[in-house]
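Task 17 of the worksheet. Students: predict the tertiary structure of the chain below and write it out as structure tokens. Keep your answer in the requested format; marks are given for formatting as well as content.
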Amino acid sequence: MFGTPLTRSATIMPLVALVALVLIWGRHLLPAVEVAVVLLLSGSVLAAVHHAEVVAHRVGEPFGSLISPCPSRSSRSA
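Model answer:
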């Protein structure tokens, strides 16, 4: 349905994290639940970085380096 396992997780992880965040907002939680929520939100950040990398790759030079969160160094000298 979504393609590769990385694409599937990058699509599903933010949705799961959003649902978890809505369910726990404003509540006092056990430390184990807090750790689980932190891991879900961290996965969402990594999914956002993955999406930015995909867009940067599709757009190409020179605009891809402006979009990419971690632009690679060019082998050409300035």
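Marker's comment: The radius of gyration is 17 Å. The helical segments are 5-24, 31-59, 63-67.
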